[in-house]
Amino acid sequence: MTRIVIAEDSAILREGLAQLLLDRGHDVVATVGNAAEMLVAVDELTPDVVVVDIRMPPTCTDEGLVAAVSLRRSHPGIGVLVFSQWVETRYATELLAVNPEGVGYLLKDRVADIAEFDAAVRRVATGGTALDPEVVRQLMGNRGASALDRLTPREREVLALMAEGHSNNGLAQSLSITERAVEKHVSAIFTKLDLAPSHAHHRRVLAVVTYLNS
Q1: Element containing residue 27 per DSSP (H, E)
Q2: What mean pLDDT is predicted for residues 120-128?
Q3: pLDDT tens for each residue of 86-106
Q4: Which H helix or E strand runs over 123?
Q5: Which residue in 21, 82, 135, 192 has its CB near the most CB atoms, within 10 A?
Q6: Per-residue model confidence as pLDDT tens digits over 164-185
Q7: Burial level of 193, CB count in 10 A (0-12/13-18/19+)?
């Protein structure tokens, strides 16, 4: 049974989500209306996954997503499923940068199937990912998963390990090659995926996002 904390400022949506998940066999251990209460609930209850909106009190801007990034750093074993009307690319990239495993980002207006939402919650709770294609599109711009076809088998192997969260040193040890060789492979991956240096996005994260959605 998946233990869930729901953080949503709309009382109707919050309780509706809770009932929906309860009906499908989950254990909703807490429902809260702001990011601060979410962090307290997580510390006290240690859920498997948190379903969190982006815009919550007091300013209703990005408190939820900022808290989600903080949560991933302090509790890396807890899944985070962002469920919002908005795409915030800066914090979405940071959320994935912490560790892409156990992260989801779905858009409320685009979830038309309850079974799809239920599957996403279960997937994120067990360390998988659930990313709306529109979120990926905005993160990646014009780059698509088809760009992976440009990679060599070794480069795809490197990218797969990157998606598991390995550092360059970890990649070198896993593949029994030098860190210099790893750096060359990573550089080639960035080039082939058209990931030029950018202040707006972390290239390593964008490469992983492409891989996860291929």
Answers
A1: strand 27-32
A2: 91
A3: 888 777 777 877 677 789 999
A4: helix 114-125
A5: 82
A6: 667 889 899 999 999 999 999 9
A7: buried
Q: What is the mean pLDDT of the chain?
A: 86
Do 55 and 18 contact (CB within 8 A), yes or no? no
Rg of the chain in Å (alpha carbons) = 18
Report how far apart, in Å, the C-alpha atoms of 127 and of each of 103, 113, 124, 139, 172 are: 7, 22, 5, 21, 24
30 - beta bridge partners? 5
pTM reported for the whole predicted model: 0.73
d(CA 205, CA 131): 13
C-beta contacts of 15-18 below 8 A and 24+ residues apart: 17/51, 17/83
In the beta sheet, which residues pair with residue 83? 106
Question: Nearest 10 degrees: CA dihedral of 205, 91, 116, 159?
Answer: 0
Q: Tell me which DSSP letter residue 120 carries.
A: H
Q: What DSSP line would sit under 124-186, residue for residue? A: HHTT-EEE-HHHHHHHHTT--GGGGGGS-HHHHHHHHHHHTT--HHHHHHHHTS-HHHHHHHH
Strand extents, DSSP E, 33-123: 49-52, 79-84, 103-107
